[in-house]
Amino acid sequence: MSNFSNAERAEVLTQALPHIKKYNGKTVVIKYGGNAMINEQIKQQVMEDIVLLWLIGVKVVLIHGGGPEITELMEKLGKKAEFVDGLRVTDKETVDIVQMVLAGKINKTLVNLLEMNGGRAIGLSGMDDRLIEAAPKNEKLGFVGDITNINIDAVTGLLEKGYIPVISTLGCDKEGNAYNINGDTAAACIAGALEAERLIMMTDVAGLLKDMNDPDSLIPEITTDDAKALLADGTISGGMIPKINCCIDAIDAGVKNVIIMDGRVPHSILMELLTNEGAGTMVKGEK
Fold this sequence. Notes:
By secondary structure, this protein is an alpha/beta fold. 41% of the residues lie in helices and 22% in strands. It has 9 helices and 14 strands. The chain has helices spanning 6-23, 40-55, 67-76, 92-116, 153-160, 183-194, 224-232, 240-252, 268-274; strands at 27-32, 59-64, 83-84, 87-88, 121-125, 132-136, 145-150, 164-168, 170-172, 178-180, 198-203, 221-223, 257-262, 281-284. Strands 5-8-2-1-11-13-14-12 form an 8-stranded mixed sheet, sandwiched between helices. Helix 3 packs across helix 4 and helix 7 runs antiparallel to helix 8 (240-252). The chain starts with 5 loop residues before the first helix and ends with a strand.
């Protein structure tokens, strides 16, 4: 905005006012995928955007992944990453690595960035206060978990005290075993438990495309019924299938709407929440 006059800057802020009113006091859950956070400059801008939302009264919950960094550490330790149907095979040694990367390095880095930009943030893993209870998903996958219950009190308590909760997607069972939990699934369940106004899924694609080979075929808005039809006829395929299913699950659980957007685009969160144009694909219910 360095080339803008003061009047133009004021006009931009005025145009954002209705959106600020809309989200003030509302809960917005942001899922920050590992593939979207590979650029340090963009990561810094994302944290700035989250702090700005927090300062104008939005209750922001940040849920993060970290797949690329988990794979990188596994390779450094001489372990080869294996995937089945897009899910990481997670033996006991691997789940320890997942815990180190997600609950350790990435979680605390994001908390620190938020604090350095003027926010108040506290990091949690899904194991804290049994936030995410889980059970084994499939014997072949090892310590990959299906979510059996969400205990949301720790998150709501932090929101009430004015903090930004930053959550890594680990879960645990009653025996204390740790589980690797799919980040999109965890975000959908947590957003549903919070009855969030909006769930924003920041990934490495522009949104839902009619033709995955044509970036200009973005679908800006779709209902859950239409999304189910596109799933049935094969238009939605590959890695977008579980993402869209998570969107549908979140809306069924009480989230008002879900956005899939490219988290590598500068200030995409602010474009979505504080402008008329928005960003990515909005998935909404049938109201």
